[in-house]
Amino acid sequence: MKISKQLRTDITGYLFIGPNIIVFLLFTIIPIIFSFVISFSNWDYTQGFSNINFNNGMNYINMWKDEWFTKSLINTVVYSITLVPITVFLALVISVLVDKYVIGKTPVKLALFMPYISNIVAISIVWVVMYSPYGPITQFLKSIGIKNPPQWVGDYHWALPGIIIMSIWAGIGYAVLIYTSSIQSLPEELYEAAQLDGASGLQQFTKITIPLLSPTTFFLITTTLIGSFQVFGQIYIMTKGGPGTSTHVLVYYIYTSAFTFFKMGYAASMSWILFIILFVVTIVQWKFQDKWVNY
Amino acid sequence: MRKLVKIKVKKLNKKLIAKIIVTIIIWCLAITMVIPFLWMISASFKISGDVLKIPIKWIPNYFYFDNYKFVWNIGNIAPRDYHFALAYFNSIKITSINVLFSVMTSCLAGYAFAKIKFRGSKVVFLLYLATMMIPSQVTLIPKFIIFDKMGIMGTHWTLILPGVVTVTGTFLMRQFFIGVPNDLREAAQIDGAGEFRTFLQIILPLSKPAMASLAMIVFMWNWNNFMDPLVFLRDWRTFTIPVALTNFGDENITDYNLVMAASVSALLPVIIVFLAGQKYFIKGLTTGGVKG
Fold this sequence. Notes:
Number of helices of chain A: 13
Largest interface: A-B, 89 and 94 residues
Low-confidence stretches of chain B: none
Distance between the termini of chain B: 61 Å
Number of strands of chain A: 0
Radius of gyration of chain A: 24 Å
Largest sheet of chain B: none
Shape of chain A: globular
Number of domains of chain B: 2
Mean pLDDT of chain B: 84
Number of domains of chain A: 2
Number of helices of chain B: 13
Order of helices and strands of chain A: HHHHHHHHHHHHH
Strand content of chain A: under 5%
CATH topology of the largest domain in chain A: MetI-like fold
Number of strands of chain B: 0
Helix content of chain A: over 70%
CATH architecture of the largest domain in chain B: Orthogonal Bundle
Strand content of chain B: under 5%
Oligomer: heterodimer
CATH class of the largest domain in chain B: Mainly Alpha
Shape of chain B: flat
CATH architecture of the largest domain in chain A: Orthogonal Bundle
Distance between the termini of chain A: 59 Å
Order of helices and strands of chain B: HHHHHHHHHHHHH
Helix content of chain B: over 70%
Radius of gyration of chain B: 25 Å
Low-confidence stretches of chain A: none
């Protein structure tokens, strides 16, 4: 029997993707389906698999009455909408300055990038010590004349800002890296023309650099937003969600619900809420990419 | 004419001054960014009582290596459940297996999606793309249950089995192979080479830089992976560095010098690898490999 050419190509194709797709099905597709199914149950892992009760999506309704959940969601949103604009804006300014004016660009970029590649556990531990009442940050604030420096992660009002400052420090290197690599591809002639017309540095920045970099800015806002909604490591190490509920974020609540209290169904439904948020962010990026990118 | 030159010189001077000022500001900022690291290294060589002394002594009077000896349990001076050498071994083992296999599976599948016109390739690839939008927390809970049922909870299989394939890696390699001209492949096949031989002998040698970039980012994801080992591992003997460090921090958080020595130990490998393979690493990140 002769095998047709197309069939032969099909077999080759599936042999090539074989190992990949088996693992993909087992540990990505099946878990996604599984997670979706149990998100409609109030399954408690300690009760065993036979005691699974489906509750017609009541998880998705009841969670809005759960103060821990709503507080976590609010904290996550506050964290993200503070962190993302500051990170992206600072990164933009730094990148332009580094590219245009700075002597010794590479070491500067490396210094900014160090925290990004570092293990979140290690840098969180360092920041816990630095934020502590006798730590260097508090001592520094005292030395410049601030009488009652904040207790940072020990204080209800300062814990989230403390985490945000640390996270900006940890994440800004990535944004600078992406910006500097796009700045290098900007057309030099435009700047020369602007200089001939007598445009100041600031004018060049607002009239040329910002518009030309808008696709990069847009990409960075999306990726940073997606990352910030999933914040977990620094919360786990630095505050465990406390004091009170001040730093209790969504992924931390998913983690404790599932693996401390074993409420698998409820935790799964919260993880789908996280998905919906990230999905909306991604769709907005796709839909409005052309409109917001203004050139 | 002379006036014009004068203006130009003045402008140049102004530019130079601006450049120097901005350089100083940015360098100050860069130093601020690395201060936590410098402080960490400095504290890791101090005795416990000196860590928080004011003013900060950036270079300790005496380099106290015993912190590292304790953390690494050299000479059995530490209680049994901090064994950084073991955590290192576990991290290196899991990371290298996952890097090796995920680069292999990504190349194979990426090549097929890019070049082989098999039926269903578009649909399957779309399925891959769709899952990129789903956050890892969604699959964490079912994976926990599946691993528990499989009886591999607490073993390194929980990190290796799902780690040998990455959707992002498959996607990145496909993008790369699409850019490889078709004539190379066709020429090889006219000469009678089969698909696999073409891939192995013609295409793969061209893809070394792309593979290196992918290997770098997969290395970073695995080395720094925190949530998965936190959920799936239980025993200190199986801990990878991030969990071992968490465990160590929980029990010794007041011994800042020891915790800092442990943190330095945890950071060193990734920084060395990064400095060694910077070019590939940055290439990998700028082409879209943000998170696993």
